[in-house]
Specification:
heterodimer; A: alpha+beta; Rossmann fold; Dna Ligase, domain 1; D-amino Acid Aminotransferase, Chain A, domain 1; 8-stranded antiparallel sheet; 5-stranded parallel sheet; 13 helices; 22 strands; B: mainly beta; OB fold (Dihydrolipoamide Acetyltransferase, E2P); 2 domains
Chain lengths: 447, 191
């Protein structure tokens, strides 16, 4: 079976450990590309690693040429970008390909297409995914904005075509606010992104976040692996993910799952990808964006399908067809994941780097913990605060939630505050159990 | 394109460690014994086909005493922060200073190695030293062994400007040390 003997992990922390685990199982030697700050981390013990730059991510994990060079000089023929950092940067995908290193992910052109707001939406709409009502691409002037806003109904959101991070966005709640919102959004977009182009969408308040996991091989064969609900969020950071989605019409679900696979194959997608949707109060799923990488919450899908998504990614990158057909995919039970961060939820989620003096994780049937942390681990102040993910799998949502509460109770983390108390409060909350909440607030938790 | 290497000091050590500012293939490394000053070339590092000139940082001054392993290779892969060269800031000035100091202290009396190699004070490990501090040596008397390419040569007490007899005051090199021709071996004082 052709494949890779050595694979560079161009990432750090939890995802690096996750990818290495599958490499071990597949008989591939993982080589960790690390920054100076991570070079002494416990998770590198007994591992091959190479230092690519200083702690600052812009000089290490965000430098495509250093990562590809690291792959070259350590004899790696494949590179896994993980998530975050350069996982969705066409440059890393393209540069890897140019230098004969197989990028574990889609081709650069596809990443580029999905990174652009309106081309991505147009491609997805053409494949049959429904969009949030709004302008048909970029607006040519303020008059067009006014006309579109009147047609889709208020409130509306004016967004920068090259935007991100919440900048270059303005809300207009009535017809007389459109001109001001347009001008302000345009000014901010020009200043922040050097691109004044705007598009307009109806503003949806109180939707749920639902996403669909798809997988496509190099021969155009695509499958979906069900959906995930990630409605519990804080500042657009997901806190809890679960599958199946507790609120979703079966017809709408089936229709969108199939359309998502069609959409992915239609753009020449390769590998693991996720279509993100907003579930409207009227019960319809509207496409928001596609993530052209493995997601943090992929474990939820792994628990329900029994399929190792990283293994599938590596095999697909090596040119193998998908190991399963759509009929082979069996989604069983209910899985839920909590992201545990080194943050103090009672202090406004203040990040808390420091040394973890004691670390013990729960185990048992249907419990999975993905982490790079061990006793004595120093949480570096340079990167995100994710310590671990706890995943619980049971027959029903109720049972999975109860199992998660037990698991979180058995998780010992001393030395830094964590978000565990918040998760426990959410899981015990009545509104959460009834699935009666949306992305605007965290059920059972008032900061 | 040029990048400046980084200087790493290790507490309690006089040697300076100059480490790589990049990940890549390092080539044209300076040879052992070359003198490095701030701004001097430390070879080039190739990152995906692009060559970056590496220059010595401020404070990096000394003689290259080690080039971090297999210096003989045309290009060696280095990681960020990996040792490029170890510099001995006292090597030039230091050795001269020690020699001058020894010469001055002994009133010009110092026994210098007649040949280079590995210096031994004993004929074999279980034998007594040829000479000890405080012994009086006379012309022609063996004072040590020098191993040159697996063969041993006795070296005798002789040298320009040395008296017929002199007292060994202090050894300046360790037993088993690598020496060069003309290196000061021990200080002498008139017997």
């Amino acid at each position: 079976m052709p494949g890779f003997r050595r694979l560079l992990i161009a990432n750090r922390g939890e995802v690096a450990v996750r990818v290495a685990r599958t490499c071990d199982e597949m008989g591939i030697t993982p080589v960790f590309a690390v920054s100076e700050a991570d070079a002494s981390a416990g998770y590198l013990e007994g591992r091959e690693w190479v230092c690519i730059g200083p702690a600052r991510a812009s000089e290490s994990y965000l430098r495509a040429e250093r990562l590809v060079q690291a792959a070259k000089q350590t004899g790696c023929t494949a590179l896994h970008p993980g998530w975050g950092f350069l996982a969705e940067d066409p440059l890393l995908s393209g540069l890897s390909a140019q230098h004969g290193v197989t990028f574990i992910g889609p081709p650069a052109a596809v990443i580029h297409l999905m990174a652009k707001k309106t081309p991505a939406k147009q491609a997805m709409a053409a494949a049959g995914l429904r969009l949030i009502d709004g302008s048909d691409g970029v607006l040519s002037n303020v008059e067009e904005a006014q006309a579109v806003a009147d047609r889709v109904g208020y409130p509306v959101l004016l967004k920068a075509e090259s935007g991100g991070g919440g900048r270059g966005m303005r809300i207009a709640r009535a017809a007389d606010e459109v001109t001001r919102a347009y001008e302000e959004a345009q000014a901010e977009a020009t200043a922040a992104f050097g691109d004044a182009r705007l598009y307009l969408e109806r503003l949806i308040e109180g939707g749920r976040h639902v996403e669909i996991q798809i997988f496509v091989d190099k021969y155009g064969q695509g499958i979906h692996l069900g959906e995930r609900d990630c409605t519990v969020q804080r500042n657009h950071q997901k806190l809890i993910e679960e599958s199946p989605a507790p609120v979703l019409d079966p017809q709408e679900r089936l229709r969108t799952l199939e359309a998502s696979v069609r959409a992915a194959t239609s753009i020449g997608y390769v590998g693991a990808g996720t279509m993100e949707f907003l579930l409207l109060p009227d019960g319809t799923l509207r496409f928001m964006e596609m993530n052209t990488r493995l997601q943090v919450e992929h474990c939820v899908t792994e628990m329900r399908t029994g399929i190792d998504l990283v293994k599938e990614q590596i095999q697909v990158a090596a040119g193998h067809p998908l190991s399963v057909s759509q009929d082979d995919v069996k989604l069983t039970g209910h899985a839920i994941e909590c992201r545990i961060n080194a943050e103090d939820p009672s202090e406004g989620f203040k990040p808390a780097p420091g040394t973890i003096t004691k670390w013990e994780v729960p185990s048992g049937d249907g419990i999975r913990v993905d982490s790079h942390v061990s006793s004595g681990y120093e949480v570096p102040p340079f990167y995100d605060s994710l310590l671990c993910k706890v995943i619980a799998h049971a027959e029903t949502r109720e049972q999975a939630c109860d199992k998660m509460i037990d698991a979180l109770g058995a998780l010992v983390c001393e030395g830094v505050p964590t978000t565990i108390p918040m998760h426990q409060a959410i899981l015990r909350d009545e509104a959460f159990r009834r699935a009666d909440y949306d992305t605007r607030s965290i059920p059972g938790w008032t900061p | 394109m040029s990048v400046t290497a980084k200087l790493k000091r290790v507490d309690g050590e006089t040697r300076l460690r100059v480490v790589s500012p990049l990940i890549g293939y390092w080539r044209e490394a300076p040879a052992n014994g070359s003198l490095i000053k701030p701004g001097a070339s430390l070879g080039r590092i190739e990152v995906l086909g692009l060559l970056h000139d590496v220059v010595a940082p401020a404070g990096a001054q000394g003689i290259v005493v080690s080039t971090g392993g297999e210096a003989a290779r045309a290009a060696r892969p280095v990681g960020y922060g990996e040792l490029l060269v170890e510099l001995d800031p006292e090597a030039v000035m230091g050795a001269e200073a020690v020699a001058a100091d020894a010469t001055r202290a002994a009133g010009g009396l110092v026994y210098r190695a007649p040949s280079g190699g590995r210096f031994y004070r004993k004929a074999s490990p279980d034998k007594p030293s040829f000479v000890n501090e405080g012994d009086v040596v006379s012309k022609g008397q063996p004072v040590g062994l020098v191993e040159v390419m697996k063969t041993f040569h006795r070296i005798g007490y002789e040298g320009d400007g040395l008296p017929e007899q002199a007292k060994v005051k202090r050894f300046l090199v360790e037993d088993g040390a690598d020496i060069m021709t003309g290196d000061p071996i021990f200080e002498l004082e008139p017997a």
